[in-house]
Write a structure and sequence with these properties.
two-stranded antiparallel sheet; 5 strands; 0% helix; 28% strand
């Protein structure tokens, strides 16, 4: 997503905005003092080097059972004992 970081030259407030096209850059104002005197900051990129991160554990699935007639059903929730 095109999220940009800015710093207000008037009050020093740092903030982020979602900018969808370049014409919106001309209308950026500080959300604190509403000054148009803002500077676009260079954002740091996230880079991962080395081993791949461990994937999260698998999420248990909900099992659905239905009666042969199709008019009733029960749901077995993971971790629930009857």
């Amino acid at each position: 997503m095109p999220i940009h970081e800015f710093e207000c030259k008037s009050c020093g407030h740092k903030f982020e905005l979602l900018i969808m096209n370049k014409s919106e850059l001309d209308d950026v104002r500080c959300p604190i003092c509403e000054s148009p005197d803002v500077t676009k900051l260079m954002s740091a990129a996230t880079i991962h080097m080395g081993e791949k991160p461990t994937p999260p554990p698998a999420i248990p699935r909900v099992r659905h059972h239905s009666c042969p007639s199709g008019t009733c059903s029960t749901i077995d929730l993971p971790g629930h004992k009857r």
